[in-house]
Specification:
The structure is a homotetramer. Chain A has a single domain (about 15-245, about 295-335), classed as 3-Layer(aba) Sandwich (Rossmann fold). The first copy, chain A, has 13 helices and nine strands. Chain A has helices at about 15-25, 60-65, 85-100, 130-135, 140-145, 165-170, 170-185, 230, 245-265, 270-275, 280-290, 305-325, 330-335, and strands at about 35-45, 50-55, 70-75, 110-115, 155-160, 185-195, 205-210, 235-245, 295-300. In chain A, strands 1, 2, 3, 4, 5, 6, 7, 8 and 9 form a nine-stranded mixed β-sheet that branches. In chain A, β1 (about 35-45) and β2 form a beta hairpin. Chains in contact: A-B, A-C, A-D, B-C, B-D, C-D. The interface between A and B is large, with 40 and 40 residues. β9 of chain C pairs antiparallel with β9 of chain D.
Chain lengths: ~325, ~325, ~325, ~325
């Protein structure tokens, strides 16, 4: 997670580039093009599935977005949180394409890929990473031991769940670095549960980026970043927002309510009072004075345990299809029940 | 759960009598006595623990409170959600006393008690009941088979988790009735996770009542009630609020924000606009127009998995101490790890 | 489970009719026909799957087999314990046919079926029943509430896991009776993990019978039987052996070793000593004098947790296909992930 | 695990030094002293608890024992697998003393200790390591961030569960090395579930050694050893046998049966035949010809899930007491529920 960055007027916690670009466009109009940023969108499956590619091209784009240069692909579908195996297969294919488009190229040998499942396996909305790490089709140990037994079209895949610093006492970045030093991957694919700004994004969005990760940063600490510059191999991050923090939710509800009231109050003295309440003021007001006690709470759907099963299966199989070029949608079920 | 009842001005979903009596007092002043209702409160452990007994005495009290005649004992302590074994022991003792005060009396034979653990074992905040059912010290089968082996001072205890209708296809009340017909208990003790109105109550409050249960009612359906009149034995309910629904949370936040603004806006034209916004209007506004999408979301702390371990251990041991008169705090650890 | 019955020479614990009929044939020769018993066998999928129907026709058959009159269908496949989704689909179809052949017939209305998942959800090899109860497609609550919404071709299905007496303090048969009194099913389908005699049967065999169940009997207590005569509706039992008890395993190993030695020792004085050691003597010797300490141990494969996922999915979907006549193999995945 | 070494006559798989020294003594008589090996034993708690220290002094001892020079402390108690909190407290104290006696000394600063929880968290009898890693009182992250907040008497503790190669695709030794390179501990404490030779040892024995570990070796592969020489810090291993492999069990049962028969057959021609059957012949006979199908099976008690809770709590708290010199038995419950 990236923590709180100041973007445009104000932005409470979001890990999603698409939420930022949408917010920036909302402040202007829909045809507005953010300088230094390229946004392409397409709808699939009769609207049940949308893919958006936000490309931050230069430092101007970085400044406008509050995020580093790179590609941010977003897959949106309410089907992610529903028991809909057919739509899930479509999402898996689209996800696999997105990951493939960010993988490094290698002339002859198979890619050596390390999957990192970030998160705390004991907090349900944070289990996405560990679950995916456990469901990808791991091959590296077989490749090393009996390379002749390994099918063509299968890469060297290892996977690992480094847990979280509160449970291990070790910086997660240190653990990853230690493992990567030994595995020496061509590419790391890191999976993490994210925080979204909008409750409608919970369990409906997958973001794939090639800009690296900073594990643990989202909970308030800015630790060592892991990206191509710092760890010497490409780092692809796959994230799904599974929670919204309660302060953000309440703050956004207020904003919406005030917008709603403003429309009705135009030309009244009330209007001036209301429009002076900026979003940031609400946020601070709520966080500090009104609801200090809710600042540790998170918002999730009741059926989160079930949805995590769908999400982890979709992300794991998207990775399987992307990295093992010889595998098909049919094959993957054989290896990941 | 009891669903939405209209109490005083307006009351969003709460299962706690204490939240209703507090709300009624808040509308007046602290010395106000609700007609037909008796409220007694005491603080223990230097304020770390509070016990409140709300007794609804007659139909007038019923009408004022929107809840049936009977006793509602509330134990409040932030220690419930903290890893604090010493305070937990105190809470267990207080809980045991509260349950004992509501148990039926029996002259000679040991009591025959059936513990019912309500809730869905696959949704973390709803697992309290099934976990407790699994942690009480079950004796009935031994008592029937080899009564001579059973210690004096141990009652006949059986326990059961009926799951939820969405998983079984059977009304929970039907399952309980079927089991009770065979076990023929003197008293049922039913454990359930509740919804609170205020986020500060999450995992900090235990309510013990003798007014029966209506399983499943809280999720919107009013099913058969289970109480002394309908099932022929006393029914004690032990509940802990583990979630707040998101609409209630946002609605309450608005109320608080408006109160806050009203204090600053006195004697301004703004004041009149604001004070006309009633709580109920907010609630409906939020529920229907602004945030239809959050109505399925619930608010819980991130560490809910861990807190459920404390809560279930405390409630199970409170029951163990209350029903097995020969057991001590020291004994209980031998049987419930 | 049926406990220890004396069959032919001697039979340590087995719940499988096929093990008894095979043992009886082994004592004679393969063409031997057990009086009062009909045995039909067919191989499918090029031998990857075998289906055997043992029908006990009369009291003579009962006496010879040590099991009640009725049908015992056995499906055998090593694929059950392997990650082989294609073979699993075949097994699901065959299992559905077997269950269908034992279901009661009903002219107009849909069948009202109650699935009972026997076993202890906290002991891995015993979790089959509770897992299946949780994975069948439950419809009864929808049928009662909004019958018009229910598809044609869907029966009234409810499901229930009564846990075990050691955890509830209640005879499992009592719990089932209580629930059945309220649900009033046309047929009960009970799922249970069984004990096999031979280690090769662990997680490779499904037995389907229409002779009822006696829950808890297998662990040494003969409790009330549940069958058409005692509970007033058909009772189909679906069982999978997931353990072998250690004494049986050692005893069988000795028998095999002695057979092996006998073949080599013919015409020697040793022969006479060896052939006098009957199987039953070994069993008692091992159980009482040599290995009292192993009598509580069970034999399971290391990967039991994973295999239970396959088994429960196969059995649940076999039931889904059998009872919901409008469902296809493709549909079932939508409802049971 | 150490795999199969040839010791004395013959030794099937055991990880326990005490089983080897006992076997060597059994071959002679009880007063026999194994050259190069020192054995000291004491009984505690009126025999409910025994502590044995086997010290392998030199290469002669190494040769006799088939294990490297070093200390092997064994704690034996049936209480380990029983719900007996009082005896568990005694075992925790004795375990803490044993670990302390092997810890490195450090003059001024607190020790920097890395706990490694070996094993597969998805196979119940193999979960000891991961569970313990999760229950020790982790402090290193606090010590690094806010050293002034850390109590005196608390060491720098981090903990980590590297999973198993079959799930990660990475040699477990590589993962540990990677993490240790970053944490730079003074001492590693590695926890693992072991295989015992005798079924009576299952869940009744803890072995503590200072001779290092070779993760994964027990399943047949001799991988890189991790000990003071190869990783540059002390490596203490804490192991508990939780399974016996089935072939060993059957083989031992045969040996015992033959001993039993030999006593009765003395002076008969049978005697000579029997005494020629060596233990190793049985083992091979069983493994290769008679029971190839059981070679993947393991023997565990039915209540293994519950026993793993006791074991992990005992081992985690033994470590807590040993490494945090300021902690008492009373404190540890505050941090590890």
């Amino acid at each position: 997670m990236d923590g709180y960055e100041k973007v445009g007027n104000f932005s409470p916690r979001t890990d999603l580039a698409i939420e930022i670009s949408n917010a920036l466009k909302l402040d202007r109009d829909d045809s507005y093009e953010i300088p230094g940023v390229e946004v392409k969108q397409k709808a699939l499956e009769e609207g049940a599935l949308a893919v958006t590619k936000v490309r931050i091209l230069n430092t101007e784009g970085e400044k406008n977005m509050g995020k580093p240069i790179g590609d941010y692909i977003t897959i949106e579908s309410n089907g992610l949180k529903q028991n809909n195996p057919e739509l899930h297969e479509k999402i898996i294919s689209v996800l696999a394409e997105a990951i493939k488009s960010l993988l490094p190229e290698k002339k002859q040998d198979p890619l050596n890929i390390l999957v990192i499942g970030l998160g705390n396996r004991f907090a349900t909305p944070d289990t996405l990473g560990p679950k995916v790490a456990n469901q990808v089709f791991v091959t590296r140990h077989m490749a090393l031991k009996e390379p002749e037994l390994l099918d063509e079209g299968v890469c060297y895949l290892s996977s690992f769940a480094p847990s979280v610093m509160g449970l291990t006492g070790i910086e997660t970045a240190e653990v990853i670095r230690g493992v990567a030093d030994n595995v020496k991957p061509d590419c790391i694919i890191a999976i993490d549960a994210l925080a979204a700004r909008s409750a409608t994004r919970i369990n409906t969005t997958i973001q794939i980026t090639n800009t690296g990760i900073s594990p643990g940063a989202g909970v308030g600490n800015k630790r060592k970043e892991l990206n191509e510059a710092t760890i010497g191999c490409k780092v692809i991050a796959v994230g799904v927002p599974t929670v919204v923090d309660t302060v953000t939710l309440v703050s956004d509800a207020l904003n919406d309510l005030i917008s709603h009231m403003l429309k009705q109050a135009e030309h009244s003295p009330f209007y001036d009072v209301l429009k002076d309440l900026t979003a940031e003021e609400h946020y601070q007001l709520i966080k500090e004075s009104i609801y200090p006690e809710i600042s540790d709470l998170f918002v999730t759907p009741k059926e989160i345990d079930e949805v995590m099963e769908y999400l982890s299966s979709i992300v794991a199989n998207g990775i399987n299809l992307a990295v093992h070029p010889g595998m098909t949608l049919k094959d993957i079920n054989k290896y990941t029940y």
